[in-house]
Amino acid sequence: MSRLHFASALLPSGWANDVQVVITAGAIAEVTPGVQPAAGDERHAIALPGLASLHSHAFQRGMAGLAELRGDSTDTFWTWRETMYRFALAMTPDDVADVATLLYVEMLERGFTRVGEFHYLHHDRDGSHYADVAEMAARIAQAAEASCIGLTLLPSFYAHGSFGGAAPHDGQRRFICSVDQFAKLMAASRKAIANLPGANIGIAPHSLRAVAPDELTAIIPLAEGGPVHIHAAEQVKEVEDCLTWSGRRPVQWLLEHAPVDQRWCLIHATHMTDDEVSAFAKTGAVAGLCPITEASLGDGIFPGREFLDAGGLFGVGTDSNVLVGVADELRQLEYGQRLKHRARNVLSGGAGRSTGRTLFDDALTGGARALAQPIAGLTPGARADIVTLDAMHPSLAGRARDAVIDGWIFAAGSGAIDCVWAGGNKVVEGGQHQLRQAARERFNAAVRRLVA
């Protein structure tokens, strides 16, 4: 058991002063506001709950910044994808573990305490299966265990190269499964995370490009009630190709043909009509937004104001992991809306409301739902995922309550984070994860080999 005392803490009911939190077996056992610190309490100034990165491709952290050289033709998501394939084809299981470990260390240092790992790098470099079909999933679990981040593993089903059951691209050979093979992968992946505290599992049909309708129907039961994540409508070309194939847009097709409900998370959903926005919001499914990656890949800007006005729920993910941070994703989300609408504080939710607080609360709720976490926040029964901010940071000076969150997201960034507890373990202190140096050394050695 450990006891923490915070001068100010954001609870589900709002900000409270002089809050004591008791942690037992990795979970929050008691939260008591309005009490003076007791002997033995570890004291901090400002506490927030950790957020979830609901969408991550860990291996892509190793190629961050390697696709910024303009080719001869127009540079788009589709040309970036070729660079990604080449990088993915070179990685060993050890490389995947080393890259994911540093990524998860960085996530924790920057305010993310759980990750939804949309995992599709399954097989050996020639496309053959490992003796343990979940070899790569086990390496993801290894990285999560080493860093202490909460893991929601989302093995991805990927069978085709494009709509209509097109043959897969050779660069996709490490991703490809039949339905029967995927069922075996799911069973083995469950075993890979079975002893990992706080871990859970869902499924991730990759996209309508990669999954035929009959396959989608066949694999959904493999989630066994867990979350279901799918990429949808990320690119205009994807929407056009889906219309050619089915006469429906991707989000429209899913809403008409799949059992989309609160267990589902539609990743990106960037290009929607007004009718799709309204219908999607009504399902209770989460929009999985990855603002930095969506900007990096030139995807477009999600209809955020319209979706929230319709009652929609969102969470944020780090996706390609080109830049990692809670403040960075939430700031980019709001700034994209400001550019689109040529206005300020677009996602605040109303006059007199803090934009930072609104974004934070929405992302906390949406991330928890998308990763099947029934209890979120600093409250009894929740996993003890806690982030403290440095009250001495210049961008937080003189601020209190919601103004602290605004200062963090829009001015201070990741540099304002002091300590982080993940599953009750204090893994970050003074802004640095206890594994940072060792993880960096292993990551650097792996990436030097890969880029060579």
Automatic annotation (TrEMBL):
Formimidoylglutamate deiminase N-terminal domain sequence ranges: 2-45
GO MF annotation terms: deaminase activity; formimidoylglutamate deiminase activity; metal ion binding
Residue stretches spanning the membrane: none
EC number(s) stated in the UniProt entry for this protein: 3.5.3.13
Keywords: Hydrolase, Metal-binding, Zinc
Pfam families on file: Amidohydro_1, HutF_N
Top-tier EC class: hydrolase
Domain (Amidohydrolase-related) ranges: 46-427
Cofactor: Zn(2+)
GO cellular component, as recorded: cytosol
NCBIfam families: hutF, PRK09229.1-2, PRK09229.1-4, PRK09229.1-5
PANTHER family from the UniProt entry: AMIDOHYDROLASE-RELATED DOMAIN-CONTAINING PROTEIN, GUANINE DEAMINASE
Protein name (record): Formimidoylglutamate deiminase
Phylogenetic lineage: Bacteria, Pseudomonadati, Pseudomonadota, Alphaproteobacteria, Hyphomicrobiales
